[in-house]
Amino acid sequence: MLKLIATDGKARRGEISTSHGKFQTPAFMPVGTSGAVKALTSSDLEGCGAEIILGNTYHLYLRPGTDIIKKLGGLSKFTAWNKPTLTDSGGFQIFSLKDISKVTDDGVEFQSHHDGSKHFFSPEKTIQVQHEIGADIIMQLDECVPYPVDESKAKAAVDRTCQWGSRCIDEHQQIKSSAESNISLFGIVQGSVYPDLRRKSAEQIVSLDLDGNAIGGLSVGESKGKMEEMLALTAELLPENKPRYLMGVGYPEDILMAVSYGIDMFDCVLPTRNARTGNVFTSGGQLVYRNAEYADDQRPLDPNCNCKVCQRYSRAYLRHLYNQSEITAMVLASYHSTYFYQQLMKNIRAAIKEKRFETFRKGFLAKYQNSD
User: Fold this and answer.
1) Of these residues, 8, 136, 142, 267, which one is catalytic?
2) Contact 45, 342 (CB under 8 A)
């Protein structure tokens, strides 16, 4: 599945093959929660350079429902995105909606945030749902604990995640054998900020011999230093010949840090969520374009960006649209930030291939500061 093309220290440049084509790594996956990256079309995403997007199992299961997605040819065809897709298991959404969910060893009982109806996700059910959605890469059901959390609760979540992972792979293999599916299944390492639990979880998940391995439960409130400590420890325990996916991260500086430890895949709502609230990412740091100081600023969002937004529109215009509640502001800002992230990944890949990653990282961070 993973073809390593180049390394520079622990940083890796690779290519992952799926039924809907290949994508280059390190890769950042825009988050298409309900089958769309908010404010962007599939054509927009292609124009930004995205090669794989993420769908949300919890949301897609509730609406429009897996029967409709399956009937219409699976997630890629349904969304007119003819490239690779990945779906999460729904575990993180259930974690974030903990007031309307209940976790047991059997699975998770939860209420729909739409209408309050009750549903149950067992490990087997999440695999069935994801196969029906038809993503190229699917995730095991895991238990993501909050931060801070008692070590005993973190340990229980590690054990449960391993048990669920074993049940997920049994169901996955059974479906694959009967449906001749090429879908790949990834496991998820948990353990919060406890080194021994991270080691235990990594050992357990790696022993399942899944198609790839993800690191979950980070960037949930812990310090950046603690996140890096746990990431470095965990990444070292994951197989070199399989994809490594850091879930839910994040900021450009965090991505660069994680790449330096050998991470291949990332996802986060940050670029588009921030853009919709008047804040975009640029080579000089984050820019709050809604601020009054940009009311007559003729410069583009990022003078160093070649995206179609920066080539045509001014900060003043974007600010005007935002303050008039024009949806066009969200569209243009989301496009720019998505393009920015894809260009960052493209430049990271080139730097690894040319064995100048640390030089690139230092140069990027020197310019990436909250200055105008």
Assistant:
1) 267
2) no
Q: Strands 101-104 and 184-189: what pairing?
A: unpaired
Task: Choose the final residue of a domain: 232, 252, 268.
Answer: 268
Residue 127: both structure tokens together: 């695999």
Whether the per-residue pLDDT at 361 is higher than 90: the answer is: yes
Alpha helices in 282-326 (DSSP H): 315-323
pLDDT for the residue numbered 279: 98
**In angstroms, rounded to a whole number, what is the distance separating the alpha carbons of residues 174 and 66?**
19
Residues 123 and 235 in one domain: yes
Token output for 341: 């992230």
Provide the pLDDT for residue 181. 87
Per the structure, the count of domains in the chain is 2
Does residue 267 have an active-site annotation?
A: yes
Print the domain residue range for 334. 275-358
Do 31 and 92 lie in one domain? The reply is yes
CB atoms within 10 A of CB 43: 10
Domain boundary among 268, 292, 323: 268
pLDDT at position 372 is 46
One of 8, 44, 88, 142 is an active-site residue; which one?
Answer: 88
- What is the C-alpha to C-alpha distance for residues 30 and 272, in angstroms, rounded to an integer? 8
**Residue 306 near residue 282 (C-beta atoms within 8 A):** no
CA–CA distance, 368 with 22 (Å, rounded to integer): 30
Residues 282, 146 share a domain? no
Residues in the chain: 372
